[in-house]
Amino acid sequence: MAEVRIGVVGVGGMGGFHADYLQKGKVNGARLTAVCDVIPKQMDRFEGVKKYGHHAQLLASGDVDAVIVATPHYDHTTVAIAAFERGIHVLTEKPLAVHKADGERMIAAHRKTKVVFAIMHQMRTSSVWKKVKQLLVAGELGEIRRVNWIVTDWFRPQSYYDSGGWRATWKGEGGGVLMNQCPHNLDLLWWWFGLPKRIVAQCRFGQYHDIEVEDDVTAYLEYPNGSTGVFVTTTGEAPGTNRLEVAGDRGKLVVEHGEITFVRTEVSVTGWLKTSKESFSSPPTWTAKIPSGGDWGGHHVITQGFVDAILNGTEPIVRGEEGLGAVELANAMIYSAVTGSSVDVPLDAAAYEAKLKVLAASSRFKNPASDSGPRDMNASFK
User: Fold this and answer.
1) 3-state percent helix, strand, coil for the chain, nearest multiple of 5
2) Which of 73, 272, 346, 373 could form a disulfide with 283 if both were Cys (CB 3.0 to 4.6 A apart)?
3) pLDDT of 309-319, one tens digit each?
4) pTM of the model
5) Is the Cβ–Cβ distance between 214 and 176 less than 8 Å?
6) DSSP category for residue 323
7) End-to-end CA separation in angstroms for the chain
8) Considering Cα of 40, then 42, then 48, then 54, what sign does the dihedral take?
9) CA distances (Å), origin 246, targets 133, 136, 152, 256, 263
10) Are the beta carbons of 186 and 325 closer than 8 angstroms?
11) Which residues fall within 8 angstroms of residue 272, CB to CB, at 6 or more apart?
């Protein structure tokens, strides 16, 4: 294969963005050959490519080797599995799926094939976040004790939610800030620290907006080694904050405004705590700004990695199955809030799917064909 023929499914929002940079030749070895959307006018601006009104038509056409799935969330599962069944490579937008059970179905379907499966978690391509990963893997902070991430810079006005009937509904989106904006942050959390063993979360539903899902979240995480984490996010606060703090046995890492600050203790904090004879003493430290390179990566970088994996047999930057971590964290936080209890991780996927089905049954989203992207909103509940 000399080049990868790519179709984009759902071009009303992010899918249109992906189709644009593909047509502009920003991904080597790739060519946009088809687009798909249930609203024909969404496809008008794409010239020289085939156009389809339903993903099944595109997948059966023979016009594509791979698809980028950029539909509303529930359809990620439907479209990806249909593509796998035809031997078509898949790069899906985040989140991998609305809930863990659907994510597991996608992964199981992919394992029956030899095609490439990747997910658009482009924040992993940022030099800042890659540097954090490098420092953690190298053990520069010693054993991790505490993680705090305040991510309140996802502000959205009511008009954003009003822009599509599927948005911010249990049946159309399956969640709010945790399922739409924060899959990126949650992906980084589990990429850096793994999954916690237990989560307690308070989610406020429609706190700032006229929506039925969460727009304000405070979650407490307990990790297997005894360390703890706090994750705070909202789409209703401005000006927002984006501050990551990681405390370990050998210092503290702070990431804010694109800068990494490392406060290194000259000795083990635990050792000093146990042996110092001075009642109000603390370990001596030095502080350094850690250069990261200033490259924020981007969506096209993930797509390039996807194409390279197809052409050259390399690993995609973020494999599809890796997307399950962010889904599990988001599901566990919502489940804790709606049940008013702590949630053990791994999450009981069947129990959460059943709870989500109840929430979706009372959702005000009633018109699956009103927005961009083909969909079968009942597919995940069959």
Assistant:
1) 35, 25, 40
2) 272
3) 999 999 999 99
4) 0.94
5) yes
6) G
7) 37
8) negative
9) 12, 10, 18, 12, 10
10) yes
11) 265, 281, 282, 283
